[in-house]
Amino acid sequence: MYKSNDILRKQTTLKGERKLSVLAGYCVLFMLQVTRVYRWYQNDDICNPLLMIPPKAIPPFWNVVFTIIVNDTMVRQAAMAFKLVLLIL
To answer: How many structural domains are present in the chain?
Structure first.
C-alpha cells in the first residue's frame, strides 16, 4: 500500500514529464492486484460485506477483522488506480 502511494506521488510530481504508458501500466497492475485478491478469497465471501450483503451466519471475530482489513486495503488500492486514471486524463 505504501509503495503504491509512493509511486502515485512520484508520478504526480513529474507533471509534464510523466509518461502515459507508465501510468497506464501502474493502473493495470493496481487493478490486477485487486481482482487477484478477490478471486483468491472468492470462497470466503469476502466481497459480501463490501456489497452490503448480510452474512448467513455470524462469523468468528478474527474472520470479521480480516475481512475488514482486506476490503479496506483493496478499496484504497482501487482508489489509487482511479487517481492514476485521472492523472492520465
So the answer is: 1
